[in-house]
């Protein structure tokens, strides 16, 4: 069932329920008013008839004649007059005897002074009526034909109004739901036009302050993230194919050249060394891509542990020096503390080692003396690591794109690399709820500032 139909039925059901309750209340109030009014009129008729009898002491036939000329409100009222010791003085319809008075009823009337009776379809009343210094018991009963006829007409009118109103409510609810859901139909229609080839399309936002506006805005934000992901994926595939093609082409060319004719052992050795270098380059590129994929994992999928930063940086230093014995890495503690927690972070040892190895390697690669100075300090809830070099520095454009995947600056074309290391380091730092900033100027070196929350 469509939302439009569901909303219409719910709206009609709720409104119909309220409508029905109101009609029941109207009928109930009308019935109460009729009953109270009839009791009041019945009392007046009973007093009138009792007064005529006690004044004239006439028989029933004479009383009926006198009463017919003096009645005020109700036709065919049965009235009886008794003494307080249950002696009947007058009854104008003893053969019918609607009230059926008895001693218990007389006693109750004497005690309460006035009672109201419901006898089948009849309403009755019993009361103490004082006359000439004596108390008399007067009972009266009658059928409110006029009142019940009005109630029946009211009931028929209310039922007709309910059916007609329900039909009108359903129609109005359907139109209202259709109008209210039109923006959703527009959103669905526009969303159906969005494809991978037209990912730049966006949903219309007519009012940012209502729920549909918030939905469209949220969906547009999702589309923006998807567009960024798609573009990154395209760039990733393009760059990977380009980066892998170069060493593969070089490797193939070297081997083809070696097989064209007989060569000396030295020439074969040079060919194998070149092939090995290209293979190492592809292996390094593959490792970088695998690590980049790991850095995209959610926290729940990564094993976390408490890690001392000094030990972590020593491990990263060892990794760099094993790969590049000519590099120099100096570790400096700027602040002394007896609390090891200030330099202890919670993270993944493997990923953090990769991140800091990449940053240290970047320092050494572009430093004049192939060195990096690593300083450890702490501030509030952060452990702070500064990695500095005295190298060529970066331009503003290079700083803006430093952490872009596969981006390589103008100076990097003279050095070996794939444009993965800095993007990978940033992803890993962010994965650990950290922050990374770079300060650099051309000819003045580069400083990376990494902040990680300590335990």
From TrEMBL:
Enzyme class (EC, first level): transferase
Residues passing through the membrane, by range: 12-30
Cellular compartments per GO CC: plasma membrane
Molecular function GO labels: phosphorelay sensor kinase activity
Primary residence: membrane
PROSITE patterns noted in UniProt: HAMP, HIS_KIN
Assigned EC number: 2.7.13.3
Keywords: Kinase, Membrane, Phosphoprotein, Transferase, Transmembrane, Transmembrane helix, Two-component regulatory system
All residue ranges annotated as the Histidine kinase domain in the record: 239-455
SUPFAM superfamilies linked: ATPase domain of HSP90 chaperone/DNA topoisomerase II/histidine kinase, HAMP domain-like, Homodimeric domain of signal transducing histidine kinase
Name this polypeptide is given: histidine kinase
Species annotation: Phocaeicola coprophilus DSM 18228 = JCM 13818
